[in-house]
Each structure stands twice: as C-alpha cells, then as structure tokens.
Write a structure and sequence with these properties.
Rossmann fold, 298 residues, alpha/beta
Length: 298
C-alpha cells in the first residue's frame, strides 16, 4: 500500500486542533508478517539512501521526535533506523537541562549536537521542550534567569509577558531552522499523536511487565494531569513552527506499527527528494585509481 505522507503534514500557519486529527488510522499493513515486510523494505531503502548521503557530503538530515509520554518515540527510532550505519547517525535524548545548560540560551544545548553534512542526527525530544514543558510549567523560566527571585515564581510573570517569551522563542526556532535549511540541513519533525486512553493502557502495561517497570515513574502520572495544557501547547507549537522547509508531521501513534511505517515513509521521501548519488569519478581520479591498481598488481 502506498503511504501518502502529505496526509500527516501540518500546513504552515494553519490552526491546529488535535481533537480533529486522528490518533489511529486504518492499518497500512494486512498482517504482522506484511508489516515486517514493508518495514524491512523501507529500512533497506533508507540504508541505501543514507550511504549516498554520507558519500556525497552535501546535506545533513535532522529528525526531531516529540510527543506525550509513552507515545512510542524510542521504539520508532529503534525500528525505523535499525538498518542505518551507526557511523553516519547519532541519537541524542534531551532530559531536564543541567545547570550549565540553563546558564545559556535555550537553543545552546541542542545546537552543539546538530548533524554535520553527510550525517543523520536524531533528537529524542529537543529544543521544542522549551515551548512545551516550559509553557505548561512556566516556573521553569526562573531557573533560566527569566523570572525574579522573590515570591511565587509561577505568579511573577504576567500572561502577556509569557506570550512575549514564547512568541519570541517560536521566532528563534523558525529562524534557526531556516538558517539550517539554507546550509543544507533538512529537518523533519514528528509529533507522535497519542490518545489519553492509549497512554493509560501503555502505562498499565509498563507496571504489569517487570521488564518495563524501569520505564515508569510517578513523574509520568504527575505530567498526565496536565494533558489538556500539553495539548494546547502542542497545538500552538505546531501552528507556529511548521514551515515549508521544516514541516511537522502529526503521526497517529495509537498503533505503533502504523506509526513506524508512516515515519519511515516520510524519511524515505525526504531523502529521495535530495536526489542523492555517489560522487562522480573525475578523469584525474580515474587515472589515480588505475595507477594504484598497477601498483597493487605489480
């Protein structure tokens, strides 16, 4: 089945209402065997494209994954990128910022890990946390030196000031991504769209399965209480930062297998659009190789 990746793309400037976007779509595979066959086909094609990306050294690819807890970010990265040469790919997971990171601007800690040309960089969470988690918990701004030291930090800043901060951050993000695009970095951003009920089921599975207990913490339950606030933060973020050159894709995530097929298809389409190829051998290089052959056969 052909996957139309444009079905999941967030159009620039369009209002986003997550309640109107599906968390589950009709399966893109007929059976588990069919799913594995399609994924293997995608992975093999991605591996070939990645080799040409590395060999040509003209572009880099940055993949950003965001979503609610238990949305399947880790699994998607692990399965979709399973055939990629580790030498040409790096994965970075961004948790709570350190004291050093908080002392810099909000883009600093992620900018240090941007992929060089020829490579694929993967951000499992990213600088977008600064307009998602921080928007839901504005008291975090105090640690960044953006709130006063007295009184209740959550009340020290007026709503209008908060809007100014996040509008400015959206602008900084869009400017950064435009700059990267102009310099050969292609950016794909995936919002794994999970329903609240599916998250509940996955949390229960993590509790019931001893092998998954380590994935679960009380902090997950605490953040679940802010579901509506996170939904609003994601809606505004997707609207403000999905652009023609750095699009967001809202990937239905209740079916993990479907989500992985959609993501792999989107990445594959993006790499193919670069029209990659192996560097052509010049006449000088050809003569050099012939000289090396003669020496080896000598």
């Amino acid at each position: 089945m052909k996957i139309d990746t444009q079905d999941f793309r967030i159009r620039p400037g369009k209002q986003v209402k997550l309640s109107r976007l599906p968390t589950r779509v009709h399966p893109l595979y007929k059976s588990p065997k069919d799913y594995h066959a399609i994924l293997e086909e995608h992975v093999a094609a991605l591996s070939e494209q990645q080799q040409m990306l590395y060999a040509s050294g003209r572009n880099a690819l940055l993949l950003i994954f965001q979503g609610m807890d238990a949305a399947g970010k880790d699994g998607a990265i692990r399965h979709v990128m399973s055939g990629i040469n580790p030498q040409g790919c790096e994965v970075f997971s961004f948790k709570q910022p350190s004291a050093e990171e908080l002392s810099h601007d909000f883009l600093w800690r992620t900018n240090r890990h941007l992929p060089e040309r020829g490579r694929i960089g993967i951000f499992n969470r990213s600088y977008y946390e600064e307009v998602l988690v921080v928007r839901v918990h504005p008291e975090c701004l105090k640690k960044e030196g953006l709130l006063g030291d007295s009184g209740d930090p959550a009340k020290e800043i007026k709503p209008r000031k908060l809007e100014e901060i996040f509008t400015s951050r959206y602008r900084s993000i869009v400017d950064l991504e435009h700059h990267l695009h102009r310099n050969g970095v292609r950016i794909l951003k995936f919002f794994l769209h999970l329903s609240k009920e599916e998250q509940r089921q996955r949390f229960l599975a993590r509790i019931d399965d001893p092998a998954k207990n380590w994935k679960f913490s009380m902090a997950d339950i605490h953040e679940r209480k802010f579901w509506d606030q996170y939904t609003q933060a994601f809606e505004e973020c997707l609207r403000a930062t999905s652009t023609a050159h750095s699009p967001w894709y809202a990937v239905p995530a209740d079916d993990k297998n479907n989500a992985r097929l959609i993501i792999s298809a989107i990445v594959l389409d993006a790499l193919k659009s670069l029209k990659l190829g192996y560097p052509k051998t010049t006449p000088e290089r050809h003569n050099e190789l012939l000289a090396i052959r003669r020496e080896l056969n000598g």
